[in-house]
Design a protein that fits this description.
Layout: H1 3-12, E1 22-24, H2 26-32, E2 35-40, H3 50-59, H4 63-68, E3 70-73, H5 77-89, E4 93-97, H6 103-113, E5 117-121, H7 126-140, E6 143-144, H8 151-167, E7 174-178, H9 183-195, E8 200-206, H10 211-218, H11 241-250, E9 253-257, H12 259-273, H13 279-287, H14 292-295, E10 299-304, H15 314-325, E11 328-336, H16 341-349, E12 355-360, E13 369-377, H17 383-393, E14 398-400, H18 405-411
Parallel strand pairs: 2-10, 3-4, 3-6, 4-5, 7-8, 7-10, 8-9
Antiparallel strand pairs: 1-2, 11-13, 11-14, 12-13
């Protein structure tokens, strides 16, 4: 990746993509005793950085290619960038998205693209949608706009790096970049390796989709068999071949962040900063906690990649956060089948600040006891041990579900 390609992309994007602000965050700076800045790509017209790469690629097409239209596959944000670009350039697009894509993102794609865009929902993952999109593209002789494995797309994303360096008032010690397919990380690495090689670039992946970290460890681009799709903007089974070649020697480290920690960060940003970010948009800020000891007195930048979060997901986000923080616990408890059994359980087991938030029980009169699925919320993480001790002391037999993932998913969520 040549730096001049990224400078050319910056010219192409003038008047299309915003030069988003690099803002110092007071709360994070105080917490980590550092100067923490957020690169606010969530403020783009399509609420993510993906507009940059999509527009840069589509704007490069010949008149003949434009007349045939374009095809893309996306979990949401790239689709919105393509839709926005196609409407601006009056080009038709067929966009394939996983059926699991949050409805808010599907709606926004149609909103940005209007009559220029057809949306097709298919498969459960980005890779499923991508395979179908490529086949459709070949059959109809259209141009495939890859979300990350394309030089011009990477160049568009790399303009973020140019903006960060233009706006920074001091040398940047750490730069945290989210990784899904790797296009953003590759573009930023290309810029910083040339213009700020002393900056440590930290790639951040969701723990359930460590495609870049796995590939770097294996020494070759590796396809994951299974992924957790929760962080939908960064959950891919395989990073791009070109991003991998760029990132494998230029990323200083790739760090995994648990999905529950991402959720805690999202809620914190909403409550403390009035920022609405999507899971992928919270990845880099969530990673700060992991690097806390190294950040003191450093200049730190986190790329906030997007804010396309479906409000209907908030209950799941809260649930995952509480589970990660150790504040919510699920059990299967064997209850006596008689009047007053629940009252006894409450009196003997729970403290005044504990709460039951889930209770599932079907009475069967032919048995002395019956299984109850129950969720208990505690105010402090340390209170959980007291609940368990009380249950054992009072003779309740139970199975703790939080650490039995398959059973937990079946019974509790």
């Amino acid at each position: 990746m040549q730096l001049h390609t990224i400078y050319e992309a910056r010219e192409t994007l003038k008047g299309i993509a915003l030069h988003t602000p690099l803002t110092r965050n007071t709360n994070l700076s105080e917490e980590f005793a550092a100067q923490v800045y957020l690169k606010r790509e969530d403020l783009q017209p399509v609420r993510s950085y993906k507009l940059r790469g999509a527009y840069n690629k589509i704007a490069s097409l010949s008149d003949a290619d434009r007349s045939r239209g374009v095809v893309c596959a996306s979990a949401g944000n790239h689709a919105q960038g393509v839709a926005y670009a196609c409407r601006k350039l009056n080009i038709s697009a067929v966009i394939f998205m996983p059926q699991t894509t949050p409805f808010q993102k599907v709606k926004q794609v149609r909103l940005f693209g209007k009559d220029n865009v057809e949306v097709v929902l298919i498969g459960d993952t980005f890779n499923d949608a991508s395979d179908t999109a490529r086949q459709y593209c070949e059959e109809n002789q259209m141009t495939f706009i890859h979300p990350f494995d394309d030089e011009l797309v990477i160049a568009g994303q790399g303009t973020i790096g140019l903006e960060i360096l233009a706006d920074a008032t001091a040398p940047i010690d750490y730069l945290f970049v989210p990784i899904g397919g790797g296009g953003l990380a590759a573009g930023i690495c290309a810029v910083f390796s040339e213009l700020s090689p002393e900056t440590r670039i930290i790639g951040v992946e969701p723990q359930g989709a460590l495609s870049m970290l796995t590939s770097i460890r294996n020494g070759e681009n590796t396809t994951l068999q299974e992924i957790d799709k929760f962080v939908d903007g960064a959950a891919v089974k395989r990073v791009g071949d070109l991003p991998f070649e760029i990132c494998k020697t230029r990323l200083h480290e790739v760090v995994p962040v648990p999905e529950g920690q991402v959720c805690t960060t999202m809620l914190r940003l909403y409550n403390e900063e009035a920022m609405v970010v999507e899971p992928a948009g919270a990845l880099t800020i969530a990673a700060l906690e992991i690097y806390a000891s190294a950040l003191k007195d450093k200049n730190v930048v986190c790329v906030v990649s997007g804010s396309n979060n479906d409000i209907t997901r908030m209950e799941e986000i809260k649930e995952r956060s509480m589970l990660y923080e150790g504040l919510k616990h699920y059990f299967v408890v064997n209850f006596p089948q008689r009047a007053g059994a629940l009252r006894e359980f409450l009196d003997n087991t729970l403290s005044p600040t504990d709460d039951i938030t889930y209770f599932q029980y079907v009475k069967k009169h032919s048995r002395e006891t019956g299984a109850v699925v129950i969720a208990i919320e505690v105010k402090e993480k340390e209170h959980f041990e007291l609940v368990e001790k009380k249950m054992l002391r009072n003779g309740y037999t139970f199975v703790y579900l939080n650490n039995k993932q398959s059973l937990f998913n079946l019974l509790a969520l």
